[in-house]
Design a protein that fits this description.
The chain is mainly beta. It is built from two helices and twelve strands. The model is unreliable at 1-18 (pLDDT under 50).
């Protein structure tokens, strides 16, 4: 009987994952998110944020300091659609699966935003380039636009699977369960020491956040929309 129940549970999990995957946009495409729910209220009243750092004007969010803004609740399976614009030297990110907003760096997954045209980031490891899962998996192709132009991310999280589309190109397909070490990635490359927890051990339910003015250069976001998957 116990074996039968176990098999039934596995079947249920697989079926649930398949249903969520069916609701996600096709790989390499951006969805029509016009009727999706905004992640934040227009005035940011429902956001978990530091006082006096994040502002919004004409629907565009930006920060004056290196402090993140967070959703006010946890999310499981979802698709996040977002536009961002860099400045010369920008280094920022979209954070998912965050279980501790006070100590988010080792307790979350960051989809990297960077001005790959700036020398300091162009020379950095590929896992630091725009579209990468920071420190863990490089984007398959450089797709970020030059500073001052708007870019589009579609980030799909279903269980331990993360897929990222950047400006129409499917640049990330990650199964977090393969990242069982906190020191080296599956391809043998080193993981930055401040990312001290294996991705395979991180919960896949958590807050969603946007990194602020990191490395001295601004970042802008707009049309931050989310669709929860059943």
């Amino acid at each position: 009987m116990r074996k039968c129940l176990s098999l039934m549970w596995v079947s249920f999990v697989l079926a649930s994952s398949a249903c969520a995957a069916d609701e996600a946009p096709a790989a390499g495409s951006h969805p029509d998110s016009s009727d999706w729910k905004p992640l934040f209220a227009a005035d940011l009243a429902d956001a978990d944020k530091p006082e006096g750092v994040w502002t919004v004007a004409d629907g565009v969010l930006t920060a004056s300091q290196d402090q993140a803004i967070w959703s006010n609740r946890d999310y499981d399976d979802f698709v996040l659609d977002i536009e961002f614009k860099t400045a010369p030297g920008t280094n920022s990110g979209v954070v998912v699966h965050c279980s501790d907003t006070k100590n988010w760096i080792p307790n979350s997954v960051e989809i990297q935003i960077a001005d790959d045209f700036a020398e300091q980031w162009a020379k950095a490891p590929k896992t630091w380039h725009c579209g990468a899962v920071f420190g863990h998996l490089a984007a398959t192709k450089s797709m970020v636009k030059k500073p001052g132009e708007w870019n589009r991310f579609t980030i799909t999280c279903v269980g331990k699977q993360i897929d990222v589309v950047l400006n129409g190109e499917h640049v990330i397909s990650m199964d977090m369960s393969r990242w069982t070490s906190a020191k080296v990635n599956p391809d043998g490359s080193e993981i930055p020491p401040w990312l001290s927890k294996p991705l395979a051990e991180l919960p896949t339910r958590g807050r969603i956040g946007l990194q602020g003015k990191h490395a001295g250069a601004p970042i802008w976001f707009r049309n931050v929309k989310i669709k929860e998957l059943e």
